[in-house]
Write a structure and sequence with these properties.
single chain; 378 residues; two-stranded antiparallel ribbon; 13 helices
Length: 378
């Protein structure tokens, strides 16, 4: 804009809507939520996870059931739920996937089955959830990289490049994720020592210390839960390390809480609209798919499950996309950084400079290394 001069003083050249209304960046991010490669990868990941946990039956086309979120979570974890009651079209696929996965993932001993005791998680199930959680964070970092590159620059970051970036920078998110564990370990240590010295002087002294660590753990866990999504975008947009990413996330979440809530509500409305469109498209595709392949075997059921998981995949992708947009808006409001500030993958070496063009005695242009002896440059 510096190079543009007005013909007449006071002539309006353009309106910068991002500066006047930063919330419009969410409208710009709406189209980014429909990136096909990420939607398909997310749906395949959900289908693989549900299949690994034993989800063998895919709901029929047009089936509705389950609740938007897990009403009662069993040992299976985030996807282990048996739901009932009200429905939500934007999250029906996630709810039914959760119900199917939980039914196939419950494990227990024979004694527990006879006595009716609650099943416990097996090592394989817990390991599967750990791997799925790491994969989800890695995938979210790749989505954040592509989204920030699209919103902040005129260039693009391909899916392959973003996945490679997420692989290299995933370790930066370990600090924000593990920060509450420090206070949890201190809380466990003081509690263990207090039990060993029950009734003694140390137990009396350790009680307020244990209460302090418990309060600190609750506060830090709550801050991390809010700041971790923003910290993920900080790694993607700034190439921040773990400590800087966590500091940025906490700062942006606590210094502009009303802005954050307003952006989150607007993002939820846009997500509901987009999820409805994706759900309609997925159900239409499933109708043709199931009609073309009747009793096609396990592979047909798997791809049917992947199509069924598309709305849930969209909800996850859109959550990261809108978080990236919110991060850019909060960064502009707090740090004063422009929206186009972005840490690209450029080389650290200095750019090669062109040879300067000089003039010989007759005024003809020549390159600097071609200047003849005795000629002076002006």
């Amino acid at each position: 804009m510096k190079g543009i001069t007005d013909l007449d003083e006071g002539t309006l050249r353009r309106v910068d809507w991002l500066e006047l209304a930063p919330a419009t960046i969410l409208a710009q991010a709406f189209s980014a939520t429909f990136k096909t490669s990420f939607l398909l990868l997310g749906a395949l990941g959900l289908a693989l996870f549900a299949t690994a946990l034993g989800a063998t039956q895919v709901p029929e086309v047009g089936a509705r059931g389950g609740c938007p979120f897990a009403a009662s979570v069993r040992c299976v974890g985030a996807l282990g739920a048996h739901c009932g009651g009200a429905t939500n079209e934007a999250t029906d696929s996630a709810a039914i996937l959760a119900e199917s996965a939980s039914e196939g993932a419950e494990v227990g001993t024979g004694a527990e089955a006879e006595t009716g005791a609650k099943p416990t998680c097996g090592a394989a199930v817990c390991a599967a959830h750990t791997v799925a959680l790491l994969a989800a964070v890695w995938f979210a970092l790749a989505i954040a990289r592509t989204t920030t590159a699209r919103l902040a620059t005129s260039g693009r970051s391909s899916t392959a490049a973003s996945l490679k970036f997420a692989t290299l920078r995933l370790k930066s998110l370990f600090v924000p994720a593990l920060a509450p564990l420090f206070f949890a370990a201190a809380l466990w240590a003081t509690g263990a020592v207090s039990k060993l010295a029950s009734g003694g002087v140390f137990a009396f002294v350790a009680a307020p210390i244990s209460a302090f660590f418990f309060f600190a753990f609750v506060v830090l866990f709550a801050l991390t839960a809010v700041a971790f999504p923003l910290a993920t975008v900080a790694v993607a947009a700034e190439k921040s390390d773990g400590f800087d990413a966590l500091a940025r996330g906490v700062s942006y979440a606590t210094r502009r809480p009303l802005h954050l809530i307003f952006y989150a509500v607007l993002a939820a409305v846009l997500t509901t609209l987009g999820a409805g469109l994706v759900a309609w498209a997925a159900e239409t595709a499933r109708g043709f798919f199931v009609g073309a392949f009747v009793d096609g075997g396990a592979w047909v059921e798997f791809w049917n499950l992947a199509l069924f998981a598309l709305p849930a995949s969209y909800c996850g992708v859109s959550a990261v996309v809108y978080t990236s947009a919110i991060y850019l808006a909060l960064r502009r409001s707090i740090d004063g950084k422009p929206f186009d500030a972005f840490a690209a993958d450029g080389s650290e070496q200095k750019a090669r400079r062109l040879r300067p063009i000089l003039q010989d005695a007759q005024g003809a242009p020549v390159f600097a290394d071609e200047k003849k002896d005795g000629e002076s440059a002006k």
